[in-house]
Amino acid sequence: MKRFPEAQGAMPTIAEPWALDDTRSANKAMIHSRSKESNPLLDNPEHWSWPKRPICFIADPHADYQAFVASLVASGGVVTQGHGPRDFSLTKAGRKMLFIIGGDCLDKGPSNLELLRAIRHLFDLGARVKLLAGNHDVRLLMGIRAMGLERHPTTEHLFVRMGDKVIPLFKEVQAYCKGKELKKAPDEAECKRRLFPSDDWFERFPEAAADYMNAAAIERELKRMHGKFDKFESACADAGLSMRDVYAIAQECRKLFLKPKGEFAWFFRDMQLTYRSGSFLFLHAGLDDSITEVVERKGVKKLNRDFRKQIEHDLFRFYFGPLANTMRTKYRTADRPLTEAGVARIGALGIHTLVHGHINRTHGQRLALKHGLLHLEGDITLDRNSRHKEGLKGVGAGITMIRPDGHIVGISNDYPAAKVFRPGMYSQI
Length: 429
Prior knowledge:
Helices cover about 40% and strands about 15% of the residues. It is built from 19 helices and 15 strands. The chain is globular.
């Protein structure tokens, strides 16, 4: 069996109890909670409901298929036969697992399309897969879908809003564009006019957005867009892309991702916002009180129905409303708030842990108490570009496993041991 050389020999070979007194593995609120008094939730396993089959959670692969496949191998769910994005097969254990991909498949890494092909292959092998929406993923969807809408101040800026992070993907898609696509494109000035919002957009946007956003949020959006307007065209030029190139590539992206027969049409079609199994809620980033109210009244399925409806019919309402907050919150003051009341609501429903990505960690997974709710942070910095920025070497690999026997296991090639957590294990020490 061949394995990727970047990950070979890097995975931990021993296990240890999850260190809740170490900031590499727990946040300060968790450490403080454990040092002061027992926590009924953490210390009583009877509160927990576990999945019926092993769950393997991989978050934020960010266009690095080698990191993604190496993480699948770390789960024990696949074996590889080569080095390509489709050179792996399911093991007997893998056929019993549920693989949850926690969002942010796009941007940063070396190859967006190869990563998508690896994910598609996992589906094609017959694996059980849940694909969750990440903010980087939905940003592309909004940008290329907005191109086909009638121009309006709430949506006409969404293409440029993607910013320069979309350029590596565009360069990959450029290989699909044949001469005829570029010949169909209007002249440079007209392409820019179609891609960029109107000259008076900054004056019209505040009034159009007033029903969705408060004044502070509108001001932040205007400030953000000033920066993107100034940089987007020059960033494209630095990458060797004219506005005619960008327009032709964007049209090709629409074919690939939005047309029913497009190679990657499955990506957004099969995507959902969140998934629940027992005491665990899986999503990309986090919760706020308004989302907990929806879950309390209508359940998790309602969130996914609303997600599908809004990304197809109301992009602005989606992206600046509470649904998209689940993909980008970091519990900052500018984010929608999660309070003790919200935590109590979902706790009463038996949801005790959020499993998510979005915030990258450099020493494997981390357990964190946020507003009294347990968060399992599963973004372990897989893609090599992010790793280079963080001072990490090679390709990342690792998996967050939630097992039917009542154990959570965090495996990463950036931590020397597999971290093992079981409710009640610390009260017995």
